[in-house]
Amino acid sequence: MTGRGAMPLPARAYLNEVKGTMRKVRGKEEDRMEEIKRDRFLFWDILKGIGIVSIVFGHSQNLGIAIRTVYYYHLAIFFFISGYLYNEARYGDAPFDFFARRLKNMWVPYFCYGGLFVLLHNLLSKYLLFLSDAYYGKKEMILAMANTLFLRCPEVPSGAMWFVPLMLGAGTGFSVILWFCRNYLPASFRPWAAAALSVGAGLFGAALIRREVFLSYHLQTALLVIPVYYGGYAVRTWKISIEKYVTWYGAALCAGLFYYFLMFTEESVELSANQIPGGINFYIISAAGIYLCCFAAKCLQKAPIAGKAAALLGKYSFDIMALHFLVFKICDWIYARMILEPAENQGGFPHSYPELHVLYLILGIVLPVLFAIGARKVIHGLGGMLRSQTENPRK
Fold first, then answer.
1. Is the residue at 303 inside a domain?
2. In 3D, which of 295, 286, 294, 287 has the Cα closest to residue 248?
3. How many domains in the chain?
4. Where in the chain does DSSP place strands (E)?
5. Which of 13, 165, 222, 390 is an S-S bond match for 170, by CB 3.0 to 4.6 Å?
6. Residue 291 neighbours by CB under 8 Å, 6+ apart
7. Cβ partners under 8 Å of residue 353, min gap 6
8. Left, alpha or beta for 86 (phi > 0: left; psi -120 to 50: alpha)?
9. What are the backbone dihedrals phi and psi of residue 28, each rounded to the nearest 5 degrees, phi first?
10. Is residue 196 part of a domain?
11. At CB < 8 A and 24+ separation, what contacts does 203-211 make?
């Protein structure tokens, strides 16, 4: 018997069974969404891994056509990724917050690595790893540290870190454009206005470069790459499916485009030297390179071991960027002693021995990752010890 107004036992059991089934369905759906989210971020980490390997490859080779190939896209891919990952909900109306956040995230590792190179300056000069006529006393050391503090590290092994203020400037410029559109333009007009302003900024940057107007922190280049930044943002905002639209025949077409530019034109890209192709060719080449990298990342994502390895490199891309020149020169120093080469002959930059290209590439990637993993473990361990001592002081 059931009480008055109570649900009959069979009906109650059925309702509980339905609720249980719904909870299982919701749980499976949440798990599926979480898996999709993990796969999505894995893809972008793999893409960063492809980008940083391309950078090290370009710096480790003397082959002109190989260098031209990777230089077509190896920096553009990072702006595209940053545009895709831009958090409009958080920073769309707060460009200063975006700048502050990005500066904090970039400044700390930049200063740590730049400061390390400053401290090692005399040692590296003594052993001729990096040629320098200047010996750092206390005054010179302080001045070099001050420059590093303002993202202007003067040390040769930090050369690849010129990219940091460029990335900060491009992201901030894009954030300001988006803020302006969101706050001063009608909603229906915003997407097109943001695209137009981004293209305008890029063309203005290209004009500055061609007129040889070079600003501090490569700001002319930061303007140049804002359309690339916008491209990544558009892919996410417009929900363009990379899985659907990045195909083998599209990759073949882009590869053919690369072949044309490499074989039948003299177009080259070297952003650190303010060298870009004429017209809109920079954006055509960048788009083709980004598409090819997305196709490669899509393939690697389907190969668990290779994909996870590439994603790991992507997570430590800053460390690889900062340290690979130093690794190159350590290889030179060791090799010179093995073959009894005079020390004066190992002063080439970024490396001295063409026969070591493969070694430069492998060690220039692996050693910075191992160093970064070890350094993080040491820092976390020390942090844990300090917290433990603070929470449980000796009486």
1. yes
2. 295
3. 1
4. none
5. 222
6. 246, 250, 251, 254
7. 331, 332, 335, 346
8. beta
9. -65, -40
10. yes
11. 206/276, 206/282, 209/274, 209/276, 210/276
User: Please, are residues 314 and 46 in contact by the beta-carbon 8 Å criterion?
Assistant: yes
d(C-alpha 193, C-alpha 114), whole Å: 39
pLDDT tens digits, the chain, 395 residues: what are they?
Answer: 455 555 565 666 666 666 666 666 555 554 444 444 555 689 999 999 999 999 999 999 887 788 899 999 999 999 999 999 999 999 999 999 999 999 999 999 999 999 999 999 999 988 888 888 789 999 999 999 999 999 999 999 999 999 999 999 999 999 999 999 999 999 889 999 999 999 999 999 999 999 999 999 999 999 999 999 999 999 999 999 998 999 999 999 999 999 999 999 988 999 999 999 988 999 999 999 999 999 999 999 999 899 999 999 999 999 999 999 999 999 999 999 898 887 667 778 899 898 999 999 999 999 999 999 999 999 888 878 887 777 776 54
Range of the domain at 116: 36-317
The SS3 call for residue 270 is strand
Q: Give the relative orientation of helices 76-85 and 163-184 as an angle to the nearest 10 degrees.
A: 40
Residue 160 inside a domain? The answer is yes
Alpha-carbon distance 203 to 223, whole Å? 8
Name the nearest CA neighbour of 103 among 160, 51, 172. 172
Compute φ and ψ for 275, nearest 5 degrees.
-110, 115
- pTM equals 0.88
70: in domain:
yes
H or E element at residue 253: helix 248-264
